[in-house]
Amino acid sequence: SSGINAEWPLRPGEGDHEREVAVNPNNAASWVKFMAYYLGLGKVDKARQTATKALASINYRLENEKLDVWAALFNLENSFGSYESLMSVCREASTTNDHKTVFLKLASVLHSSHKFTELDDIFKTVLLKKHKHSRKVWCQYGDSLGSQSRLDDMRDLLPRALKSLPKHKHVRTISYFAQLEYKYGDPNRGSTMFENVLTTYPARLDLWSVYIDRTIAMKDISQARNVFERAIGLKLPLKKMKFFYKRYIDYETSLGGSGKVEYVKNKARDYLQQEKGEGSC
Predict the structure, then answer these.
(1) What is the pLDDT of residue 9?
(2) pLDDT in tens, 128-161
(3) CB of 234 within 8 A of CB of 241?
(4) Euclidean distance between CA atoms 131 and 166, whole angstroms
(5) Which one, of 148, 193, 155, 187, lies nearest residue 174 by Cα?
(6) Which of 3, 51, 62, 182 pairs as cysteine with 73 (C-beta 3.0–4.6 A)?
């Protein structure tokens, strides 16, 4: 727990924080607490100086610790500085850290503080220009648009993403945007997207698993059963079929009706008998 022990005072002062970072110079949490201490006193410049000291003190190999300090500095500039000072800090961070990671952190900070105009600007002028081959960038922007109820913009983003992304990233991107429909938009549309992609890739258990989870979460029993029936009707290797039958039995068990559980178990037994029969031919 970042080196703070039982002797840590209830109202730590400057000296306590000084000692804490001296003992734990590589611990971002200790430095961020020290920054928060100064901000609580209205000493914004002192907090900035503490961040600078932290970045100089933390071992260069500990990238994630450094990134946590940068993120705290982004939050500081976002709350107490100007957009220009925020961008300046971000550009500085990107010279010594992964550019994409830094700007996605900045995007999260802007999103959390509902600065959506600036957020759009970051995605359009920086992230989607410099990192258009990154699935993560397109997906994070899609999620942000969905959460703002900008569903048309969210939907328009997918074909643009597929145009820019390499082919091997397409299926997971479509799956992600289908999940955004369940989360923010129209679950029926999400379901159609899964159905379409599973027609092309019926053996992708990762897709089936997400589709089944999303459908169950909608609490539409007949729709969930339709998805399971479609899955157990596939001609796939035994191991994959067992996955579907197990999920189906677990689902029916969770509903509490024994009749349907027996129905699925019988289906599973019939399937296994048929497999054995075909195997011995």
Answers:
(1) 53
(2) 999 999 999 999 999 999 999 999 999 999 999 9
(3) yes
(4) 12
(5) 193
(6) 51
